[in-house]
Amino acid sequence: MWQRIRNWFDPRELRSVGNTPDYRFSLANERTFLAWLRTGLALVAGGLAAAQFLPNLSLVHLREAIAVALLLLGGAVAIRAVDHWARIERAIRLGEELPASRFPAVLALVVGLGALLLVLAVLAGAING
């Protein structure tokens, strides 16, 4: 595990493995990393916005729970992005099959479930309000 984390911060270590790939593959991998990073930043911004601008909801501490969930999810996406970038870059350099990832499906399910729970909270507030 520590070796994988070290690869995030030491590009020389990553470049010492395998052969130099066509730069277009490395740039495509970097663009994908940046897209994931933007997703993580958007989730963090949503968490901050929820904490600052949502009114108190009918369920106690629901606003704070939404904010914390979005902030944690944004942080997880950012960390997963850099790990995925390093794993893909290593596989490209070694000419190996790209590692599969369940993370996009998990993220989609978490966001979808969160949206469903928010719809229920809004409906409960409308009925009780």
Automatic annotation (TrEMBL):
GO terms for cellular component: plasma membrane. It is found in: Cell membrane. This is DUF202 domain-containing protein. The chain crosses the membrane at residues 33-53, 65-82, 103-127. The keyword Lipoprotein does not apply. Residues 24-90 form the DUF202 domain. It comes from the Bacteria. The keyword Secreted does not apply. It is a multi-pass membrane protein. Keywords: Cell membrane, Membrane, Transmembrane, Transmembrane helix. Its main location: membrane.
